[in-house]
Amino acid sequence: MGGLLDKWEESFLRELVELDTNSDEKKNYVECAEVAKRNCEEAGLGVEVFDSKHDNIPQPNVVATLDTGSKTTVLLCTHYDVVPAGDEEAWKYPPFKLTLKKDRAFGRGVSDNKGNVVACVSAMKQLIESGGSKVNYKLLVSPNEEIGGAWGIDYLINGGPKIRGDFAVVVDSGPSYVSIGASGVLAGKMTVHGTQGHAGYPFAYNNAIHLSIPLLGEMLGYIDIRRKVESSLPAPPGSPHRNLWGRFSMTVFKAGTKTNVIPGKAEISFDCRLIPEEDPKEVEKSLREYFEGAKTETFVDASLDILMNVHGWHTNPDHAHVKTFHSAVQAAVSPDIPIAADLGGNDGHFFTEVGIPTVCYGTLADDNNYHGLDEFMWLHDFEKVKKVLIQFAEMC
Ligand SMILES: [Zn+2]
Predict the structure, then answer these.
(1) How far is ligand 1, taken at its centre, from the CA of residue 170, in Å?
(2) What sign has the CA pseudo-torsion 362, 367, 369, 373?
(3) 133 CA distance to ligand 1 middle (Å)
(4) 107 C-alpha vs ligand 1 centroid, how far in Å?
(5) Using one digit for the tens of pLDDT, what is the confidence trace for 362-378?
(6) Domains, the chain, ranges and CATH?
(7) pLDDT tens, position by position, 304-344
(8) Cα separations (Å) of 55 from 52, 61, 70, 129?
(9) From the CA of 116, how far away is ligand 1's center (Å)?
(10) CA 112 to centroid of ligand 1, rounded, Å
């Protein structure tokens, strides 16, 4: 095919992209699941649909199975919801039309994640035709991924059907490395307490902005403390460090209302990234201790609230299926593709939490503008993902 889509792939992808399935509005879910179901059936797969109908909103999950009678079942995890197009006028190509230009396909969700749905089904279709698969593939096509997975993948694994497998591939990741883990997050805010008053009388009030400067200066030291926390897992290519490391960033500063009012309060949000091996509770303890020290050091009255804590996840790089998957990628794409863990978070935790070893791989290249304007997918990346899934099923 020379990196181009065949007729069937193109029409399947077109049907998916033309439906605006943004998870804010949860619209066109039924229509989109119907398109996925019909195309999976055409490909020769067994299809089941699981819908929690939570809040009386249809949120169908499509599960398509290639059953070879093997003892090994591999789950392929994808999603059909998208993030909203945003300012549609600002798109060069209409977001809910499929536009093919040379080696690229444009449209909202084309890479994240509808192109990957098509790549999975197409790989399974070819495996049926060749009879060469040594595993059963079970493809999960879910809604609500962009809003955390509730009633989507979470429902499939932990709710209704409690789907299980021996290995999972989250086909919602980039093509330049095989991901075997992701960072955790501890996020929250620091509040600096001063007293509010007329700016003509600064001597009479405690200016919360002025107080926050030395406190935040001390908090900068926490970046170095986090930097010293190092994972056993490699960082993605292009990272400043060889292995994944702990991070701390202050991300929002809110204070003051008017030029002539001394602010009585300043709120500083932060985002602390955890290596997959870390326990968020332990990190919270260390952060609180450091924060108390910074307060004592600067005589500033402040408090700290944790608003979110998410555990990272990882899979043993020496697991047999991980090694086979990596070899399949090296054979089908390039011998230079490494194994690494993600600096951000991703959906692998749904599988590892129930003991299923997991990797992530897909078409989402850094330049794809997924979540941005003029999202696109490289057709050669589509081809790679398809090849990898075929190769893996034959090698397993
Ligand atoms: Zn995605």
Answers:
(1) 9
(2) negative
(3) 26
(4) 14
(5) 999 999 999 999 999 99
(6) 7-181+312-395 (3.40.630.10), 184-310 (3.30.70.360)
(7) 999 999 899 999 999 999 999 999 999 999 999 999 999 99
(8) 9, 16, 38, 41
(9) 9
(10) 4
